[in-house]
Design brief:
The chain has helices spanning 30-45, 80-97, 113-120, 147-155, 157-166, 172-178, 190-202, 206-219, 224-238, 242-253; strands at 6-10, 15-19, 52-56, 60-62, 102-106, 109-111, 123-127, 131-133, 170-171, 183-185. By secondary structure, the chain is α/β, with parallel strands linked by helices. It has 2 domains: 6-203, Alpha-Beta Complex (2-enoyl-CoA Hydratase, Chain A, domain 1), CATH 3.90.226.10; 206-253, Orthogonal Bundle (Lyase 2-enoyl-coa Hydratase, Chain  A, domain 2). The protein has a 6-stranded mixed sheet, sandwiched between helices. α4 (147-155) crosses α5 and α8 runs antiparallel to α9 (224-238).
């Protein structure tokens, strides 16, 4: 069944989505794309879901595209742009536009599109054994799934070019040092840390976090003046939420806030 390719675990305030093709290092097939998009849409539709935790089953997060899934036939010239347009671009756009935080826990390898899907998430933590690989150049391709957009912004132009052209693996420790990810943790602690962080995010003012996502993405292309105006407008929207009133009231009362999440 398609749903078996992405497992959904509904927790208190958040959902865990697990890529579930461990025998293929969770490489993307068309069916797994469909399952993941359906799971993300279901999370977005559920008002009680205030965060998403994305991870992989088995010994890897995601090895990128499954090259045996009809994308290459000997003797034929494929049009890979169709695969990108149908699956990868909508997935990256969905992750960036979800009105709730998306946490990614990278266990093992994240290669090709698998690495860039991780980078499309809001916060990335990785096990010490994890590796990030822009594997595209090894088969004559270009980084996709936002790779040419995310990499320069995360690690700078010089490193982005070398990573894309040399296709060398980056350890989790180096990925943290370079600012590619938020944090590296020991393998045995990865999911404990991930669940704690997801639970924390699920208890925060979700509408405000969604506006933060939108503002940071907009800042990549806005001028300072345009960004200042956007901040003004977003702050006006945030200030009208019940969670802002609760946050200030709790601060004045010297107690922990009880945010309600999405309106």
């Amino acid at each position: 069944m398609v749903s078996d390719l992405v497992l959904t675990d509904v927790r208190d305030g958040y959902r865990v989505l697990t890529l579930n093709r461990p025998d293929r290092l969770n490489a993307f097939s068309g069916e797994m794309h469909a399952a993941l998009m359906a799971a993300l849409t279901a999370a977005e539709s559920d008002k009680s879901c205030r965060a998403v935790l994305l991870t992989g089953a088995g010994r890897g997060f995601c090895a990128g595209q499954d090259l045996s899934d009809g994308v290459f036939t000997p003797g034929e010239t494929p049009d890979l742009s169709l695969q990108i347009e149908k699956y990868y671009n909508p997935l990256v756009r969905k992750l960036r536009s979800l009105p709730l935080p998306v946490l990614c826990a990278v266990n093992g390898v994240a290669a090709g599109a698998g690495a860039n899907v991780a980078f499309a998430c809001d916060i990335v933590i990785a096990a010490r054994s994890a590796k990030f690989i822009q594997a595209f150049a090894k088969i004559g391709l270009v980084p996709d799934s936002g790779g040419t957009w995310f990499l320069p912004r995360l690690v700078g132009g010089a490193r982005a070019r070398a990573l894309a052209m040399l296709a060398e693996p980056v350890s989790a420790e180096r990925a943290e040092a370079w600012g590619m990810i938020w944090k590296m943790v020991e393998d045995a602690e990865l999911m404990t840390e991930a669940h704690a962080l997801a639970a924390y995010l699920a208890a925060q003012p979700t509408d405000g976090l969604a506006l933060i996502k939108q503002a940071l993405d907009a800042s990549e292309t806005n001028t300072l003046d345009t960004q200042l105006e956007l901040e003004r407008d977003y702050q006006g929207r945030a200030g009208r939420t019940a969670d802002y009133a609760e946050g200030v009231t709790a601060f004045l009362d010297k107690r922990a806030p009880r945010f309600i999440g999405r309106a």
